[in-house]
Amino acid sequence: MNAPNKSGWKPEMGEGGTTLTQTSSGDAGLALEEPLIFELNGTGKCGVDFDAEPGDVSPALAKFARKAPVDLPGLTEPETVRHYTRLSRQNYAIDLGPFPLGSCTMKHNPRLNEAMARLPGFADIHPLQPMDTVQGAFEVIEQLAEWLCKLTGMEAVAMSPKAGAHGELCGILAIRAALEARGDAREVILVPESAHGTNPATAAFAGYRVENIPATKDGRVDLAALTARLGPDVAGVMITNPNTCGLFEREMKAISDALHAAGGLVYCDGANFNAIVGKVRPGDLGVDAMHINLHKTFSTPHGGGGPGSGPVVLSALLAPFAPIPFVRRDEKGRLRMVEERGVKDNLPQTFGRMTAFHGQMGMFTRALTYILSHGVDGLRQVAEDAVLNANYVLRSLEGDMDAPFGKAGPCMHEALFSDDDLPEGFSTLDIAKGLIDEGFHPMTVYFPLVVHGAMLIEPTETESKQGLDRFIAAMKSLAQRAKAEDESLKSAPHFAPRRRLDETRAARKPVLTYKGEGVPPGTPSLSEIGGS
Amino acid sequence: MRYLPLTPDDRTEMLATIGAGSVDALFRDVPAQVLNPAFEGLPPHASEMAVERHMKALARKNLSAGDVPFFLGAGAYRHHVPASVDHLIQRGEFLTAYTPYQPEIAQGTLQVLFEFQTQVARLFGTDIANASMYDGSTACWEAIAMAGRITRRDGVVIGPIHPHYLSTARTMAKFTKDEIRELSPALIADAGDDAVIGMIDDKTSCVVVQYPDILGRIPDLAKIADAAHAKGALLVTVVTEPVALGLLESPGALGADIVVGEGQSLGVGLNFGGPYLGLFGAREKYTRQMPGRLCGETVDADGKRGFVLTLSTREQHIRREKATSNICTNSGLCALAFSIHMTLLGGEGLDRLARINHARAVYAAEKLAAIQGVELVNQRGFFNEFTLKLVGHDAREVAHRLAQRQILSGVALGRLYPDATDLAEGLVVCVTETCTDEGIATLVAALAEELA
Question: Is Oxidoreductase among this UniProt entry's keywords (chain A) (predicted)?
């Protein structure tokens, strides 16, 4: 960091000193570089004032006490605020513009939700407080659960799963427990090849063997191939609907009926429930279990990777096998948490507990706030606008880019394109990185795997028409640049906090913690300095 | 409908562009008999003010920890969180960002994760740490699964850990076919180190020990580590209160191979049990067996330092059914909160905070143990959490009566172990820097009255 005069400026340059390629700080106006906290002077500093003086270590504890404080830098409050504020400016976020990420729905996060989740009556209560002192929290769970059951047409909901993939595990474990309870241990879970990677990973983690089911030419599950594979060893199918090609599985009911007839059960990956909420109840299609990503459909913030929340709705058949804990009203009308498989609770069929405490309460308050804001009429409008926006993108771009399922009819929440129309040497990745230069987050790329060079675009219902028109114009321009073989596209992005990053280097010799030997930010490469 | 930006005119124009007569024409792949069902009993949209009123009324029905003398721990801890932490995590560029799959425009999140990994590794005394898991309990069973991959054994020995962590591990073991043997806690000073060691055999994949344990006792990790390693087993250490590591020697330094923990103590808050933050550290040689996200340092095309998610060939989106875990979403925002709080403290602030916690807990324990009919279980030391034996009383009933007097006194073991009659007298009390002298005095006086 302390490398003065990185700019190469010399006094003799005088007025003509226009060779400035880099500033000495690495910053350039408001394009800010920020060192690691370990590189800031954090020795002997602390940003917290305490009420009390630290006491002595009690004699009984002394033999376990560490010899010296943990080797971590401390920063004062202004230094801390500046460090993280500067870092925040190197992030793209939904507050800055759309995330057109297919299957990873990112929509506006209302701030009312944040304010409600932070009420001390929700944020400052302990999971093991006596139950009479948290009746309001139980009511939040009860109300949200009622909405989720009614919106999906299902019997019960397990609220504790911590995220979508955790919810998948919950659903598969419930299926497994139900099958084993009838003395029917089966070994195989069928997963369409277009499924999210979490689906096969979940099935394997739950002890199942995974077998793929191919897609038809129009991007849906091949019903004939599915039914041909059914048999006494098949525990169930994991199917995403609307699916990852952006299409509604027209044969969903037939798939469910076929599974049930063969003694298996149906898990639906509800990642894309936002496209049908208020329009279609998965329970009407024969689904036995489905997780709902609260952060996707009900707008809880994604926070740079989490937290998520993945409640799982269950059919009447699976409800008795739901994990603990769950909320129930007793005969006096008081809400209580059933949290142990103890003698008193007598829950012989629950498959057990899958996390400490009751799940993502902070996400429940946000989701309930969002649901009440929209109401049942607003939620239906959510699905309609999400689907309208996706189809608008599909039809506006299909003249410029290859839409492999464009002829198949309308899409649902997301529009799928491929790299088929791009010239040799230009890839989906170039379009994605080009979008960064245009000020947008890239779409989902190379997924689903059933489409070559897939580009999966999901605008969501919170994008305006004007916003979509800007995005469409940017996409058209990138497609035209690629077709004109504009080489500069291959090295995009040019206008981001970083250019393309060397991921191979990161994986070949992983540097996962700071060891005091890192390259300071903004350091030019040897070639730039002119060294060999 | 304040969150929906399309106007009726927009919708008409867009349908014309698409060439569809109505929105429902776009839903034509949905069988007509299931489209647009009626939803009985669900209300229509509401104003911001109306929703706020509804939610505030629900919040008021709960007794907030900050309003009363409060002494609950047992896996969730109440610490003061500096105002700047919540302010910074509410910056939209952090709060509303996506998983950093596009590193060029996610350096903020990625650098935070790299700093977080370093902080956790140094706190745990491990070589590396991942970029967070859902919570401590799921991190714990991921550690058990990871130990199984490394040792290719299926025996798991578990000491007196948080019972929710144990039952989470038991749920998974039913499906992974791991064979779990656990040591139940007892209201005695001995944390059961020798009993745990006696359960280790040649089939043991890992030994799981909580530090401090569910009763606040401190196991001798070095001794257990030696015994585990002698049989070819790994030591997995669980830390539910990371502030304890401000004062206690790190598990890694004492021989732990994998260290997992609940990070909620720093920056995150109680939140009625979630969202929380799973911490996960390990020896470097096990890097490729770790679950979850890892952030690594690299350079960009200009030679500038940058960060990326790395080693994704372990992960579900590449490896599918052969992945080390099915975890996809982690706890990025909670990791940010933890990291900011840790940055404000630094090693020296953490040391001070830990000593304050310890001193206040020792002070409270002495006062409480002086009450007639109360015995302090933790005669061999504790950090900020200890267990009282309320001789001849059901601690759950006592805690309930104290709650009616607006005192949240502790976690009764009967709540956690409803069927263990030998633990019914146990009350786990946690004292942090947020507990005032007045609050402690109120608890002492009220408990004495209840037991009299």
Answer: yes
